[in-house]
Amino acid sequence: MSAPPPLSRMRPATLLACFLLSLPGLFAGPTHAATAVSLQLKWRHAFQFAGYYAAQQQGYYREAGLEVDIRPGTPDSDPVQDVIEGQADFGIGTSGLVQSRAAGLPVQVLGVVLQHSPQVLLTHADKPLHLLREQGNPPTMLEASAGELLAYLAEENISPKTLRLLPHSGDVRDLASGKVAIMSGYSSYEPFQLNQLGVPFHIYTPRRTGIDFYGDNLFASEVLTRSRPALAHAFWDASVRGWKYALAHREEVIDLILHDYAPDLSRAFLEFEAEQIIQLMQPDLVEVGYMTRERWQQIAATYARLGLVPPGFDVQPLLFQSAKDRQLQQARNALTRTLVGAAMLVLLGIVVIVYIYRTNQRLRSTQTRLRLSESRYRMLTEEMKDVIWTVDVETLRFSYVSPSVQPLLGYSAEEVLQNGLPGAREAIERIVQPGLPRFKAGDITSGGHETITLELRHKDGQTLWAEVICHLMHNPENQRIELQGITRDITERKRQQERIAHMAQHDALTGLANRSLFSEHFQQARAFADRDQHAMALIYMDLDKFKPVNDTCGHLVGDRLLCAVGTRINACVRGSDIVARIGGDEFLILLSRVRDASSAMQVAQKIHLALKQPFEIDGHRLEISSSQGVALYPEHGRTEAELTKCADTAMYQAKNRGRNRVRLYRPHPRSAPPQNPPPEGR
User: Fold this and answer.
1) Which residues fall in a compositionally biased region of kind Basic residues (predicted)?
2) Is the separation of the CB atoms in 621 and 614 below 8 Å?
3) Burial of 374 by CB count in 10 Å (0-12 exposed, 13-18 middle, 19+ buried)?
4) CATH homologous superfamily of domain 385-495?
5) What is the side-by-side order of every strand in the sheet holding 139-141?
6) Whole-prediction pTM value?
């Protein structure tokens, strides 16, 4: 085969054809083999990171050419340090990344998962935050990335210097036992564990002081984003696909977590966590990963106001998208310099043609996107279930409301514009009055998004619960101040939350109160008893002859017997009293108001006689009895623990005297519970 002629002897048309044929190779990107990367989580495996598990399991990372190692965190993990030191390629961080960037650490945020941060502070119910602030030097456990919690404490006039900081153990039992007074946690995690343990607690979110930060931000080092931007984009896009899959297949992903990542967790906890995480993500309002430079700037302004970052700190270098734009501009400039330096007039002409062609393509693409954006906006405002509305803050009248108001509330958009909505004016005033003066004075944070929950009335008289997200802004056409918002029906979510709250405070088998609800009721009843100077009584009851029922008739009959026992006990007490099941066949009854020991013993005897009557269950005639101990408030103790111990002692005295009886606690002689209960008993 003969050699091709040199370029100098080629005809211009041939030269042009050769150049055009080489263009695909000129603009094509390099192909990559599968790349191993690591993701450092900031906590243990849970639904909090469901999107990344889904992206792994569904093969989205593999399709992007990635092999991903997902690493769980610990209470003392610091994902920022791991990423900066090269121990991990990507990490999950809090909005404290603003502080890290301000401190000179080259981190960049690829996108956010949670529109509202789940970080909270927890204290025991007996030790609210304001009391701890007055006492000073409370033992405190804070996670490594707790910048927003420190900001919140500063707003509450609590300096970190006054805290006795301990390493975070990740175990809520440290709070329950009193080892620590303040513990950082997540609204989707620790509250469930405390409710399961029956520990009453206070929860404090930074949002109560206007600190509303992003949460669970995916980030990388700027070394990676500058040198391998395509890798960063590929990882983020695959992760977003994983989150969308996890939101659409919640139960399937919970099964995946239980099987592959956290078999020690319970399904009930993961369902609770999933509900909380979805509320923080707000996927029905914004796309997964959505973030704005303006909100990041507000976060930086909050940190600057508290002296945690320098005043005027610019967040643009923190955001990966801005870095990508600069890289693209540098690439264009380099290409322009290369083309300008070319000596061949024909090549320059071709480059100009290609540039014009691609510019026209971008223009057409931009026009298409604008048309799609307009269409999407019309769909959102006219076809979505949520109601979009605008109110003029001076007249407090609606200036716009989407047609979806009619299926939600029964009123047409025209009716709302003309007559308003019942009760809406008062709710709008409650939202506008606090923030309007500051907004007029130029405080941009006063125009931030606010979320409230309202009970609304449908035109036909029915009631429903709605979530309203709104903010103040200037109308660009007339410069009037408007309140813009979105109203969403959350009636079903409210019912689910009530169901979850009921499950957290009631015995799953009998429906009676559990120890947590009993303790809460005790505190309230004690306050009334102290105020009105009357006595209370606590009954500790254990069933006799219950174990033989389980052994001979089976646990299903035993469970139904326990439910019947709870029904009979409730029939013997008043509505102001409370009955709790605290273990297999053990019950606590609080009589919130009694005259004296005699009246308390009468109620206990009434319960005793009711339980001696035979039970007919599934064809079985069952006969049981009870042993009960009675303790009086304040005579035998002033706390729940003291009264429970006295009543338990009296109950054991009843057991030791042959069971099937009621005994009032007597301080002397003391009778400690036997080491081994009678063999037939409990």
Assistant:
1) 657-669
2) yes
3) exposed
4) PAS domain (3.30.450.20)
5) 164-166, 139-141, 182-186, 119-124, 201-204
6) 0.47
Q: Where are the beta strands (DSSP E) in 378-419?
A: 387-392, 397-401
35-116+214-324 and 119-209 share one fold: yes
CATH of domain 35-116+214-324: 3.40.190.10
Helix, strand, or coil here: 337? helix
Amino acid at 60: Y
Which residues have a Cβ under 8 Å from the Cβ of 631 and sit 6 or more positions away?
537, 538, 540, 637, 643, 644, 646, 647, 650, 665
Total Cβ atoms within 10 A of residue 425:
13
Instruction: Give the number of residues written for the chain.
Output: 682
The structural architecture, per CATH, of the domain 119-209 is: 3-Layer(aba) Sandwich (3.40)
Residue 365 has pLDDT above 50, yes or no: yes
Domain spans of the chain?
35-116+214-324, 119-209, 342-382, 385-495, 506-664
Instruction: List pLDDT tens digits, range 43-72.
Output: 899 999 999 999 999 999 999 999 999 999
Helix (H) or strand (E) holding 136: none
**Apex 237 CA angle, 106 and 284, nearest 5:** 110
Q: Of 189, 187, 188, give the one whose Cα is nearest residue 206.
A: 187
Average pLDDT over residues 604-612: 96
Q: What is the mean pLDDT of residues 556-561?
A: 94
Phi and psi of 68, rounded to 5°? -105, 130
Per CATH, the number for 506-664 is 3.30.70.270
What single-letter amino acid sits at 91? G
Q: Residue with structure tokens 């992007």?
A: 64
